[in-house]
Amino acid sequence: LLFLSETGGKDRRSGLILTIPLCLEQTSMDELSVTLDYLLSIPSEKCKARGFTVIVDGRKSQWNVVKTVVLMLQNVVPAEVSLVCVVKPDEFWDKKVTHFCFWKEKDRLGFEVILVSANKLTRYIEPCQLTEDFGGTLTYDHMDWLNKRLVFEKFTKESTSLLDELALINNGSDKGTQQERERSIDLNFLPSVDPETVLQTGHELLSELQQRRFNGSDGGVSWSPMDDELLAQPQVMKLLDSLREQYTRYQEVCRQRSKRTQLEEIQQKVMQVVNWLEGPGSEQLRTQWGIGDSIRASQALQQKHEEIESQHSEWFAVYVELNQQIAALLNAGDEEDLVELKALQQQLSDVCYRQASQLEFRQNLLQAALEFHSVAQDLSQQLDGLLGMLCVDVAPADGASIQQTLKLLEEKLKSVDLGLQGLREKGQSLLDQISNQASWAYGKDVTIENKENVDHIQGVMEDMQLRKQRCEDMVDVRRLKMLQMVQLFKCEEDAAQAVEWLSELLDALLKTHIRLGDDAQETKVLLEKHRKFVDVAQSTYDYGRQLLQATVVLCQSLRCTSRSSGDTLPRLNRVWKQFTVTSEERVHRLETAVAFHSTAEKILQECPEQPEAFNEMDQFDEIEAVGKSLLDRLTVPVVYPDGSEQYFGSPSDMASAAEHIREKMKLVNLKKQQLRQPEATTPES
What we know:
Elements: E1 5-10, E2 16-21, H1 29-40, H2 45-49, E3 52-57, H3 63-76, E4 81-87, H4 95-98, H5 106-109, E5 112-116, H6 142-173, H7 178-187, H8 195-219, H9 227-230, H10 233-286, H11 295-332, H12 335-391, H13 399-435, H14 447-511, H15 520-558, H16 565-605, H17 618-635, E6 638-639, E7 645-646, H18 651-684
Parallel strand pairs: 2-3, 3-4, 4-5
Antiparallel strand pairs: 1-2, 6-7
């Protein structure tokens, strides 16, 4: 039964040849019947109409088996069988046994039965249509045919089943509503076998068939016209065409399903991002509305905000990935998906950009608050430093140190002014940002929270303004006090300078104002210069007195005692008294000198003939007395109130002045003698 087959040969009527090899073993008629039914189902109806020639090879079997097989053909294929050739063995069966009248049974059997030897079979069938077993030349490999047939059967079964499944899937995808399509695809989405594998099997089978047809002689296997019908090459091609068509549709369905699945996944992820940003993300921002009341508080809020931003960054990364996926689908998507994809992209972008803007606004607000508190802290430290400087009592050593301290004070006040101006700018900028917060208040009324922030900012600025105003007031007082101290030091320095000037005038009076003049006119000029010199000294003394009086007033205003005016006034008075005494002595000497020179010049200029001259001899006595008095004064020092003494000029200077007076006194004495001589001669005559 294993080798029961259609070899592909044909009889003289072009009918197919069916070979039934029998063996010594027991033959199952049921299996033989099933095999015959299968083999007879392979040829086309056209081939069946030409009839079959059945070769029953009984050379290795019993007659009873052969007879049973022949009779069975009557029941299985009576209409298709036209001739049955029973190949008998060389040692023929008993004639009596075999003398079963097959020829008499032709009408009842429906076909002709012939008993023939293998070498005589060519009488009925051409040798080229017989295999080598029956003395023919037809090349036939039953195992090869069987393997190819098994492949064909498997391919036919799988492809037919696959076509049904694909048709069900594809037809389900063509239903009207989207919901019905998705439900149909869900139920029949995966075929029972891999379409690619089935297609590959069919192509390999078809390729084998085509090679046998066109290249059979080269491979040593001849081709017969029955190959197309036995191996059903057209059927394979038809199945492949149907499979390719359905598989192409199936791939499109899968592509649509994949696209739909991808679209649904994107939509799901988009909604996850949107729901988180509009839910927990927005709630996190709703709870963060304060700006802090110090640098540390603002930094803590910034740290908390960075944690919130870190959580948002993870979702923003998902947004970027989704946006790229949506962009890719928009570039390769169908028209029907463009609207939905663009709507998803727009919704995702709107929510993400809005949330990112809120995060950026919050970050900028906290940064502005931190800068505001930093400026406020710096300004507070500057005010503390200025206040500390103002609370320390000023005890400078001189006016220069006071000027330096005053300059430092002004610089600190200017720095405070700049700091307060910067604080106002930062505060106003922060208030402007807070006023804009209501436009994106996360769906929450932030009026109360904003009012607290605004009150805090305004409170800080007002407090700094008050502190700055208090410091300014204290600076004004300190500035006035320091200016008074500068004036005090200046007055003391100028008063001391006045004492020095007066001392210099006194020294000049004693050392350079020593001449008494050579005549009355010159002495009067010296006297006039001396009076002017005294006026300068008087002005210097009055200036010093006024400065010292001013120091007294300033000390009373500053509630302090002057460190220098205590000895400056006695010094000024002492020098002035010394100058006054010296000046009076100088005036007395000059006036005496004027009187001396005037009288002397008058005497010396009178003519001897004048008789009244002889009546005034007492003038000579007077001028002599004045001259001696003047000479005496030149040798006497100036005695000051404190008992100290001081001479005018050097001894040589005084000696020179005294010598000039003596010379003039000699001239006067000579004149006197001249006047006395006439008086003495007159009585004698």
